[in-house]
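Batch manifest, entry 17 of 40.
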Amino acid sequence: MEGSIIGFVIWCAVGILFIGLAVYSWVSQKPMGFWANAEIFEVSDIKRYNRAMSKLFLIFGVVFIALGIPLLAGKNSAGIIFSIIGVMVESIMAMVIYSTIIEKKYRK
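Output type: structure tokens
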């Protein structure tokens, strides 16, 4: 049981990092990037863009933590498949939301 709790704590720490990224994005004066090692496009309204990014990262972090709950069931739990598939779906949804909504709305 201790191993599953440690795993869940580490899982939550990663989710909290995304929530911290949301807070940083909320107060940042420069446009927040989404893709790693990519140039950010020219943003029409930096403040509103960063607020949208902040909401995206906050929701991602909270859902990420919630998807880790099956880790508490212990080893050899079939529920972990929900965590794995859930994070894959969540990541794809975040990419789709960024590309189709946020980027199109705030690109100059």
